[in-house]
Amino acid sequence: MEIYKVKPPSEYPPEDGRYVRGNDYSPVAVCVILDTFDFAIPMELEDLVMAAVDAGAALSGMLQTENIGIEKLICNIVANPNIRYLIICGREAWGHLPGDTLIKLVENGVDERGWIIGSTALTPYLPNIPEEAIEQFRRQIRIIDLIDCLDADKVTDAVRACYQEEPSQFENYTLYDPGAYAEDPICVKISMKIEKPWEVEKPKMVSRWRKFIADPEEKEMIG
Q1: pTM of the model
Q2: Where in the chain are the domains?
Q3: Three-state SS annotation for the chain
């Protein structure tokens, strides 16, 4: 049985960044967390990026921040319906927590102001892309959590498991290529409504179940 694939739009990938483009028809992208300054990138992180592309990833690159970085990642993934998995690897960057924030985004979404629900990062805020793109990203991909993994061979095995025709086991995941996502690609660039999201006042609390901003005096109401 032939796996359904689509040709990505000519604008793909719409956002530039610290990534390498691989096989456009691959079902998997790889996000390597950058936990240091971008002028002092360790070779082990570059090796992870290249190992993923060599193994067949559609996109493989580094993510440093929990706001604009995630917005760019979303734009590039929803522009290619063939991408159905996102592998997150590399050491978590404390403070920014981009890896955990991506997981919380897929699990919980954003509130009415664009804050990622459940994230404890410094500024998990996505004001510069449409909600439509965020929601398609959440539906389109499944995350494979390899946070803190620096083993290029393990990342290679994860990538290869994603494009098998028959289900295969990788750690606790059953993986295979499900084919292109059924909805049309969304090809947008970030609008930069807010260029410095870290300067925006963060909500005191964002409830996963009740999407509103809570004051400290209201804590007993939340339970």
Answers
A1: 0.87
A2: 19-179+189-222
A3: CCCCCCCCCCCCCCCCCCEEECCCCCCEEEEEECCCCCCCCCHHHHHHHHHHHHHCCCEEEEECCCCHHHHHHHHHHHCCCCCCEEEEEECCCCCCCHHHHHHHHHHHCECCCCEECCCCCCCCECCCCCHHHHHHHHHHCEEEEEECCCCHHHHHHHHHHHCCCCCEEECCEEECCCCCCCCCCCCCCCCCCCCCHHHCCCCCCECCCCCCECCHHHHHHHC
